[in-house]
Please model this.
Amino acid sequence: MILSDFDLRAYLESGRLGVVPLSSETIRENGLDLRVGEEYCRVVASSRELAVEEDPPESYYSCGRAEDFLRLEPSSHYLLHTLEYLRMPPELMGFVELRSTFARLGFLMPPTIVDAGFEGQLTVEILTPPFPVRLRVGTRFLHVVFAKVATPASSTYRGKYQGQRGVTLPKW
Model:
């Protein structure tokens, strides 16, 4: 069952679902719009082979922090994060998508799921369109659709990204 704005308000007001900070523009008809944060990491091209679970992933990224605007290079892969910190209850999960405005501009994002019990800011990967982009920090960028699972998860998310803040690089 996908939650409506009515359901989401009830979850937020009861404290079962946590979103901090919560903006008046956050709650939409059937999900939440989340805003882009100030940290970014761009995947850098390299001819070096990455040995997964052996090499430190940091050497394959160029990271920074923007005060007002993110300046994104054309046709590049970035990791971005949400301003909002989420706290998911055991009976909800989320599907994360780009807002349609950004998809229509040529941004791409692989499917992203928020697991029951997850807590933290979201880190998402995007591919930029074939032109430079200036994106204001705090722009509504992502849309999360929440679904109620048939029964609450008995084993909620306790993975290596629990509690993350800012852009979090891959962890082995």
